Amino acid sequence: NLPCPGETVMIMPTIPMGMDIPPGLEYLYTIGSAHVQQKTDMLEMMSKIDTPNKYMIYNDQGHFIYYAQEVQSQGEFMAAQVVGDSRGFRFQVTDALGRLVFTIYRTSKLWTNCEMLIEAPAGCPCGYASFQSTPMCRGILTIMDQFRQPQLTIPFPSERDAHLSDRGYPLMLGGLLVGAIVRKWPGFMAQAMTNCDNFALTFPPSLDVRTKCVLLACAILIDFIDFEDKRDVTRGKRKTISPQARASLGNPYQ
Q: One GO MF term, please (predicted)?
């Protein structure tokens, strides 16, 4: 999907010779912040049918970089209606010319924990993000490189301040705070009128472009985990599913 009319498209920066950067990730080379904005789906707002999610990705100057579109087979669409935000998902992320840059896959979160795989280009692992929670810890995201080596962590904040203000998810390098993913509070009226969430990301500009790519995917994952089924009272209750239905949903990595 192309940027909206009148939007400015980010100009690809000059990359030093000899750098190993997957095609299309050059846009991430110089940036230290980004915005991930969900697109409003009127059908979902009016019908409560869980439609595929869509996100626009911008740099800190508001210039368009990527468009992320959830891709669903008929079975995956039915899974979305049954288990909602706990479904496995697949996203294709394209640039302003419609070229596929990277893909995102998440396993089903029916048993609390889940893993996300990012490929850039398609078929080549770019990085991973693993979400784990325990009775003692609400949740933590571990960002890993293409070799599954841990790089960064994102501890999840308390549920107490979940939906009435900006909500920050700190980006940690060991014990050092190096950035954040912040879900922007739209206000009461906007929250009532739209089912969309906006995220502001900050991270060290020196990070590898593959890690920055995984962080963009993490904003979408956080949306699913903390906000996807909590936008209105009709979708605020966790959907239940039988063990037989769980087994039939399969694995989105396959």
A: phospholipid scramblase activity
Enumerate residues 6+ apart whose C-beta is below 8 A from 107.
88, 114, 115, 116, 251, 252, 253
Both tokens assigned to 121: 């280009």
Is a pLDDT exceeding 90 seen at residue 23?
Answer: yes
Mean pLDDT for the stretch of residues 153-160 = 85
Amino acid letter, 124? C
| Residue 243, burial from CB neighbour count under 10 angstroms (0-12, 13-18, 19+) | exposed
More confident: 231 or 216: 216
**Can you give the three-state secondary structure of 56-112, one letter per residue?**
EEEECCCCEEEEEEECCCHHHHHHHHHHHHHCCEEEEEECCCCCEEEEEEECCCCCC
The token pair at 220 is 């979408």
Higher pLDDT pick, 175 / 158: 175
Q: According to the model, what pLDDT value does residue 85 have? A: 65
Q: What is the DSSP string of 122-162?
A: TTSEEEEEEEEEETTEEEEEEEE-TT--EEEEEEPPPGGGS
pLDDT digits (tens, 9 = 90+) for 180-212: 999 987 654 344 344 567 999 999 999 999 999
